């Protein structure tokens, strides 16, 4: 029976406390008036001759109203910055927990023989989905009710002057948006709660009817997940860039958080094994997790290239602008993400023997987690903060807080039940799995 160690608990709490302090700093340091914005822009201009020339040109040739409008626009972007940091970290960590739940559902529905020994780890880590969903839904409500400017389609003034957004109001309106979000989140959490209950029932009684219920519920959940995840991706991420759309965006977002989810399972498994638990987890189990990390990294790259190449080649202004802005204004994270999400996992995990080495899996996994956080940041930040971006205290602190909460909730849930799912019909096959 695993017990949450004092060191891990303290580590998680420290992350949360430091994260909250950093988040508070981000909101308190954000400018409150256009006068503060003008001062910031003036200070930036002094550090760049080009910027100074552009600033002087704007002041001398643009009328006062246009200048005030520009300052208001930059003010909205800078005020969005701490909100963007919190939103990005919140949705990223929540979707990782959803990915862990989905990975278990796939293994349950497929009656996979290698993975039952890891089911308790997956159940525990996916327990974060409930508190993560509550926090995320609160942020959504604040965002669309005028608490920030993350979703421009929720601003009546913007909609009144934008013909394209007006054509999407049947779908992009606040009541329908929040109803959809509630359906997605409630549906995912109901399955997570049901799965945990049936799994504990199977261990306690040995009644195989619990296993049959898990199989049926997992198959039904995957059907619901396929539809709801795609729509959630449109709602929560793609609608931030309201004019732009991609027909494979749902798959792209799925690949990003799903590979991160499996990486997280691998990290938790290696940690527990290093502490003397999961004795029957062998190199073949680690090898299979690493295979999924490798294969899904290639799958993500395929989707990224398909989305990028087709839109870039067609060169339709409303499509290609999405990538032009990111390449020009987010050059370092844009190409750095490709290195972390494709090149390094490919190099580190392409050799079959490397997939059995814990330290190699940790190196590749670290690249994957950082790279896919950058991927989410690149999907969200350009539409909310524009060119006024910088990965600083609010972004790092937000990630620290939600990772700390994930560790605390996930490992607390793991500690509430034996690490082995007793009476599972495929457990013996999993215990003696060798590849």
Protein architecture, described:
- By secondary structure, this protein is mostly helical.
- The radius of gyration is 23 Å and the shape is globular.
- The longest helix is centred in the N-terminal third of the chain and has 46 residues, at 64-109.
- It is 77% helix and 0% strand.
What integer is the average pLDDT?
91
Bulk shape: globular
Helix coverage percent: over 70%
Q: What oligomeric state is this? A: single chain
How many helices? The count is 17
Give the end-to-end Cα distance, rounded to a whole number of Å.
Answer: 27 Å
User: Nearest-angstrom radius of gyration?
Assistant: 23 Å
Strand content: under 5%
Contiguous uncertain segments of 5+ residues: 50-59
Q: How many E-type strands?
A: 0
Decide which structural class fits the backbone: mainly alpha
- Helices and strands, in N-to-C order? HHHHHHHHHHHHHHHHH
Largest sheet: none
Describe this structure in a few short sentences.
The chain is built from 17 helices and no strands.
What's the helix and strand layout?
Blueprint lengths: L5 H24 L4 H13 L2 H13 L2 H46 L9 H7 L3 H19 L8 H5 L2 H4 L7 H32 L2 H29 L12 H26 L8 H32 L2 H13 L1 H19 L8 H27 L8 H22 L12 H5 L4
Helix pairs in contact: 1-16, 2-3, 2-4, 4-5, 4-6, 4-10, 4-11, 4-15, 4-16, 5-16, 6-9, 9-10, 10-11, 11-12, 11-15, 12-14, 12-15, 13-14, 14-15
Main traits of this protein?
mainly alpha; 17 helices; 435 residues; globular
């Amino acid at each position: 029976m695993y017990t949450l160690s004092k060191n891990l608990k303290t580590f998680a709490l420290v992350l949360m406390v430091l994260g909250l302090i950093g988040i508070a700093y981000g909101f308190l340091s954000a400018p409150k008036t256009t006068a503060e914005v003008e001062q910031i822009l003036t200070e930036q201009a002094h550090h760049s001759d080009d910027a100074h020339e552009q600033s002087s040109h704007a002041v001398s040739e643009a009328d006062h109203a246009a200048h005030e409008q520009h300052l208001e626009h930059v003010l909205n972007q800078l005020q969005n910055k701490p909100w963007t940091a919190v939103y990005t970290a919140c949705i990223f960590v929540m979707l990782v927990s959803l990915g862990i739940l989905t990975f278990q559902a796939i293994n349950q529905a497929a009656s996979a023989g290698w993975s039952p020994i890891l089911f308790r780890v997956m159940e525990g880590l996916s327990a974060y989905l409930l508190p993560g969903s509550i926090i995320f839904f609160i942020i959504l409500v604040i965002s669309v009710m005028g608490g920030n400017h993350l979703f421009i389609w929720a601003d009546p003034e913007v909609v009144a002057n934008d013909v394209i957004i007006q054509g999407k109001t049947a779908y992009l309106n606040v009541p329908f948006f929040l109803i959809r979000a509630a359906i997605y989140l409630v549906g995912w959490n109901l399955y997570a709660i049901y799965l945990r209950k049936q799994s504990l029932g199977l261990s306690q009684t040995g009644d195989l009817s619990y296993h049959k219920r898990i199989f049926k519920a997992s198959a039904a959940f995957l059907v619901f997940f396929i539809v709801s995840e795609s729509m959630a991706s449109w709602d929560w991420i793609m609608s931030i860039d309201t004019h732009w759309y991609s027909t494979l965006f749902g798959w792209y977002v799925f690949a990003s958080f799903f590979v991160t989810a499996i990486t997280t399972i691998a990290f938790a498994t290696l940690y527990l094994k290093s502490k003397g638990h999961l004795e029957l987890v062998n190199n073949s189990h680690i090898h299979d997790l690493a295979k999924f990390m490798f294969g899904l990294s290639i799958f993500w790259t395929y989707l990224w290239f398909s989305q990028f190449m087709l839109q870039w080649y067609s060169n339709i202004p409303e499509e290609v602008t999405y990538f032009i802005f990111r390449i020009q204004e987010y050059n370092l994270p844009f190409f750095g993400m490709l290195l972390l999400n494709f090149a390094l996992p490919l190099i580190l995990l392409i050799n079959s023997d490397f997939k059995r080495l814990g330290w190699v899996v940790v190196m590749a996994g670290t690249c994957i987690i950082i790279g896919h956080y950058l991927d989410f940041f690149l999907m969200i930040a350009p539409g909310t903060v524009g060119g006024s971006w910088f990965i600083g205290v609010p972004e790092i602190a937000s990630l620290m807080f939600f990772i700390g909460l994930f560790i605390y909730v996930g490992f607390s849930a793991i500690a509430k039940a034996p690490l082995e799912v007793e009476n599972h019909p495929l457990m013996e096959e999993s215990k003696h799995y060798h590849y």
